[in-house]
Amino acid sequence: MIDWMKKLFGQTPSSSTAKERLRLVLMTDHLALAPEIIENMKRDLVDVISRYVEVDREKVEVNFEREDKALAMLANIPITAVNRQSPPEPPPERPADPPSAIVESTKDEVAAPASTHAGAPPRRKRRKKPAASKAAPAQ
Amino acid sequence: MDSAVAESGQDDVATPVSDAAKKLGRAIVVTSGKGGVGKTTTTANLGIALASRGARVALVDADVGLRNLDIVLGLESRVKYHVLDVLEEKTTLDEALVKDKRCETLSLLAAAQTREKDDVDTGKMRELIGALRERFDYVLIDCPAGIEKGFVNAVAGAEEAIVVCTPEVSAVRDVDRVVGLLGNRFKPQLIINRLRPALVKKGKMLSVDDVNGILHLPLLGVIADEPEIIVTTNKGEPLALRHEGQTAAAYHAIAARVAGEDVPAPTVESKENFGDKLRAFFGGRKA
Ligand SMILES: Nc1ncnc2c1ncn2[C@@H]1O[C@H](COP(=O)(O)OP(=O)(O)OP(=O)(O)O)[C@@H](O)[C@H]1O
Ligand SMILES: [Mg+2]
Questions:
Q1: Contact state of A14 with B203 under an 8 Å Cβ cutoff
Q2: Which CATH architecture has domain B34-281?
Q3: What is the number of structural domains in chain A?
Q4: pLDDT digits (tens, 9 = 90+) for B100-135
Q5: A5 domain-assigned
Q6: Do residues A68 and A41 lie in contact, with contact meaning Cβ atoms separated by under 8 Å?
Q7: Structural domain harbouring A75
Q8: ipTM strictly over 0.85?
Q9: Of all atoms in ligand 1, which is nearest to the CA of residue B225?
Q10: For A51-88, what is each residue's pLDDT tens digit?
Q11: Do B57 and B169 meet the contact criterion of CB atoms below 8 Å apart?
């Protein structure tokens, strides 16, 4: 309905902008007020990733940033070693990813010695909203 | 995160059973987080509306240092003592309560203008509200803006909360925060203040559904942005002293709902002006 109006009049009613901003800002507020949730999520995240590579748990950082229309979770997970063997446990993903993470790290000057960053672009792993919005109502 | 309030509020005192046994009145804090959204205006009008139903109502100005409620009510010239005088036992509660001559069952306990919020002892404030609950059916506490000491003190003796929110991003955000701080214990209910239906219609203001789609609170009612309120504040004659007019009626309906009557939450209909109607008639079909 709003999109339809937007197309018709070529502009977004400011009330829907307000609503959207409010939605995002409250997600951020709720997350900031629920540090335990973030800690738990961080732990689980690292647990999963450690099935494939060795991770420096102490240096793991998880942040939330406003993207254009969503809240993004940015995780910085330094990798200290890559296991050559296939992972001990499921998921069906093949261990073809770790090498690419190393390649990534060579481009990345900020990385601490012997560490690398899981995942692609700038130097952080990016995940979209779902995790964040799920965490929000738990405030 | 509820600690600020939880620390200062003792849950066990406010069980419904003991209330019924002692016939204590209801202590309701009117709060919002953000400043200037209409807490004082709402407290004054709701107090008058409740009192005009025959209930004994005490209005407590907890905004120590920025006292306003007496002005809005038009009782400023009759205030001799204030909350802190009572808390510090410089006078009695009876001496300090100002009875409103226009509305016999309404009394005001003013705030100290020349003192600071830190001067108020939270425990004593809670006792004071307790003492008022023994004499009045309703104790409405006008909370200062913010979530610091003043808020904690205002909330200390209350067992229910009314949150006032304007349809603005910042106000909604602050209400969300305050409701988080209050927790479930205060059963917060919502009044949306200063709604401008014409703007909502044009998509230029958050609607009631937009606001409460985010806050999810029981809605007591909606008050329009009402130019008359400025006039009534100038005169110290709150709108609820009248019984005619949409906004006065809205305050009375909210009072009825607070009192537990099953009346619908007042809404604000768009008072379409003649221009709007003309436009709708001639140009409306295009859109
Ligand atoms: N429904 C309304 N329509 C028009 N003006 C209003 C309405 N409600 C409040 N106002 C005006 O808004 C201003 C702020 O109101 P008020 O003092 O009640 O807010 P408050 O939340 O108590 O502020 P503070 O946080 O400073 O204590 C006043 O000038 C008041 O007259
Ligand atoms: Mg005020």
A1: yes
A2: 3-Layer(aba) Sandwich (3.40)
A3: 1
A4: 999 999 999 999 888 888 889 999 999 999 999 999
A5: no
A6: no
A7: 13-85+100-118
A8: no
A9: 3
A10: 999 999 888 888 888 777 788 888 899 999 887 666 55
A11: no
Chain A interface, best mutation among B184, B206, B208, by max A CB count within 10 A:
B206
Residue boundaries of the structural domains of chain B? 34-281
pLDDT in tens, B213-268: 999 999 999 999 999 999 999 999 999 999 889 999 999 999 999 999 999 999 99
B86 CA distance to ligand 2 middle (Å): 21
Which numbered atom of ligand 1 lies nearest the CA of B41?
A: 18
What distance in Å separates the CA atoms of residue A41 and residue B7, rounded to the nearest whole number? 29
The tens place of each residue's pLDDT in chain A, 139 residues long, gives 555 555 555 567 899 999 988 998 898 888 888 888 888 888 899 999 999 999 998 888 888 887 777 888 888 999 998 876 665 555 555 544 444 333 333 333 333 333 334 333 444 444 444 443 333 333 3
Both tokens of residue A111? 């990385």
Q: Do B177 and A139 touch (CB under 8 A)?
A: no
DSSP states along B144-188: PSSSSHHHHHHHHT-SEEEEEE-SSHHHHHHHHHHHHHH-GGG--
B202 part of contact set with chain A, CB < 8 Å: yes
The alpha-helical segments, DSSP class H, found in B183-235 are: 197-201, 208-215, 227-235
**CA separation for the pair B83, B61 (Å, rounded):** 8
In short, whether B40's Cβ falls inside 6 Å of ligand 1 is: yes
**Calpha distance B115→B81 (Å, rounded):** 13
Q: Is the CB of B68 under 6 A from ligand 1?
A: yes
CA angle B217, B4, B64 (to 5 degrees): 90
